[in-house]
Amino acid sequence: MVEQRIVSDDFLGKWQQTTNVMADVFDVPAGLIMRVRPQQIEVLVSSHTPGNPYEAYEKANLNTGLYCETVMATRSLLHVPDALEDEHWKNNPDVALNMISYLGVPLLWPDDEVFGTICVLDSKKRNYQQRYVDLLWEIKRAIEADFQVIEQQQKLMISNASLLDANQALLRSNADLKAALDKIVAMQGELLRAEKMSALGSLVAGISHELNTPIGNGLMLASTLKSNAVTIAKELEAGVTRKHMQDFISGVDQGADILLHSLGRAADLVASFKQVAVDQSSMRRREFDLRKTFKDILATLGPAIRKSGHEVVCDVEEGVVMDSYPGPLEQVLVNLVNNALVHAFPEGGQGHVTITARRLADDRIEVSVADDGVGIPEANIARVFDPFFTTRLGQGGSGLGLHVVYNQVTSALRGDVQVESAPGCGARFTLRVPRVAPLDPASH
Ligand SMILES: Nc1ncnc2c1ncn2[C@@H]1O[C@H](COP(=O)(O)OP(=O)(O)O)[C@@H](O)[C@H]1O
Ligand SMILES: [Mg+2]
User: Fold this and answer.
1) CA proximity to 296, closest of 340, 329, 324, 323
2) Considering only CA atoms, which residue is closest to atom 18 of ligand 1?
3) Rounded to an integer, what distance in angstroms lies between the CA atom of residue 192 and that of residue 200?
4) What is the pLDDT along the chain (444 residues), one digit of tens a residue?
5) 244 Cα–ligand 2 center, Å
6) Residue 238, class by beta-carbon neighbours within 10 Å (0-12 exposed, 13-18 middle, 19+ buried)?
7) Recorded E.C. number(s) (predicted)?
8) Which residues contact 378 (CB under 8 A, 6 or more apart)?
9) Which of 332, 376, 405, 425 to mutate to test the pocket of ligand 1 (most atoms within 8 A of CB)?
C-alpha cells in the first residue's frame, strides 16, 4: 500500500524549496527529507546548500545505525549535538561523511505509516534551542498536510480508474445492446416481409380452394357428356329413337350451360387472383375501381369467411375510381377482415362484419371495417398498432397485422387509420386515404 503512494513532481519541487529554506535558517550544509523503502532509506529531497554531501535519490541500507533509523523506529525527535562526544553515535555511517550533529523528526502518512524523516545535519557541533525544534515540528506538520492531499488525490485516482473501468464496461454492454438491437431491427424487417407475404399466401390458398368447385364441376360434367356421347354413338348404330336423340341434345345443352358458368367463374377468379397477386407483390400504382377491387378481395377471402361461419357484408360506393396503390389497400383490408374473424368472436356464435367504403367530400376515401364482437380493452387500444403486440401469442398471432395496416395506410397510401372500440361493443377500424395518391410515394 505504501509503495502505491506516488509523490508527484509538484510536491517534490515544493519540498525542495522548503528544504532549501530550512537548511538556510538552521544554517547547516544538509537539510534532508528521507523516505523509507523496503530494506533501504532514500534521500528524497536534499537541500541545495554549499558543502551538502547528500545527493537526492541516494540510498542507504537500513540496520546500519543511521540517525534516521532511530527516528523512524521511535517515531520521535532525535537530537544528537555531537556524535563524536557520544559513545552511542560516534561510529554511525553519517560520521563518515563528517556529519556529526543531527536534528530530525519522523514523517508519517495520515494512516500513521512511516514515510521517513525530515532532518538537518551539520559538520559542527550544534545544540539547537527549543525554537529551532519547534520550527522543525512546524515544517514536519506542513509536509504531513501535503501527505493528506497526496492521499486524497490517490483515492480520487483509484475511484477515477474504477469509474473508467465501469465506463468501459458500460461502453461494451452498450455495444452489445446495439448489436442486439440491430439484430432485432433486421429480424423485425424480416418478419414484416413474412407477414406481407403471408397475406399473399392466404390469398393463394383462398383462390386455390375457390377454384376447386368450378373446376371439379366442370370435370364431372365433361365426363358425363363423354359417357353420354359413347351411349348415343352405340344407339346410332342400333337405330336411335327420336326421344333418345332429343334427351341427348338437351343434356348436352344443359351441361354446356353449367360448364360455361363454371369455367366463367374459374376464369373470373383467375383474373382477380392475377390482379391481386400482381398488386400484392409490387408497389404498383394504377387506376382501379374501388367496388371491383373490394369484390376481388372478398372473393379470395370467401373460404376463410365461410369456414368461420360469420357474416361479412360489403357496402362500397359505386363508380369510384382510385388512382393509388391497390396492393397495400388490399393488404389492409385482408388484415382487418382476418382480425375480425380471428379476434372478435372467440365464443363462436354468429358474428357480423361490415365493410363500407365511400368517397368523402374532400376527395378522400373512407374505408371502415366494423364488427360486433368482444371489442378491444381500453388498455390495449393504444397498443394494437405496435409491432409484436398480440393477445394471441403462441396461437398463431404475430402482432404484425395491424402494424402492417398502419404502415401501409400512412406510408404507401398517405392516409391515416383509427380504431374505436368498447368492450362488448365490437371494434371499428376506419381509414381515410386520398383517392388520388400524391406523387412521390413514400419510399419503403
Ligand atoms: N377486430 C378485433 N377485435 C378485437 N381485438 C382485435 C381486433 N383486431 C385486432 N385486435 C387486437 O389487436 C391485436 C393485434 O392485432 P394484429 O396486429 O393483427 O396481431 P395478431 O392478429 O397477430 O394478434 C390482436 O392480438 C387483438 O388483441
Ligand atoms: Mg392479425
Assistant:
1) 329
2) 401
3) 13
4) 444 578 889 999 999 999 999 999 999 999 999 999 888 999 999 999 999 999 999 999 999 999 999 999 999 999 999 999 999 999 999 999 999 999 999 999 999 999 999 999 999 999 999 999 999 999 999 999 999 999 888 888 888 888 888 888 888 888 888 888 888 887 777 777 776 666 666 667 667 777 888 888 888 888 888 888 888 888 888 888 888 888 888 988 888 888 888 888 787 777 766 666 666 666 788 999 999 999 988 888 888 888 889 999 999 999 999 999 998 898 899 999 999 999 999 877 889 999 999 999 999 999 999 999 999 999 899 889 887 788 987 776 778 889 889 988 998 899 999 999 988 889 999 999 999 998 864 444
5) 58
6) exposed
7) 2.7.13.3
8) 423
9) 376
Grid cell 433486421 is found at: 186
The pocket around ligand 1, CB under 6 angstroms, is made up of 339-340, 343-344, 371, 373-374, 376, 384, 389-392, 397-403, 427
Which atom belonging to ligand 1 lies closest to the Cα atom of 404? Answer: 17
Domains annotated for the chain, with CATH where assigned, are: 2-128 (3.30.450.40), 304-444 (3.30.565.10)
Under DSSP, the state recorded for 424 is T
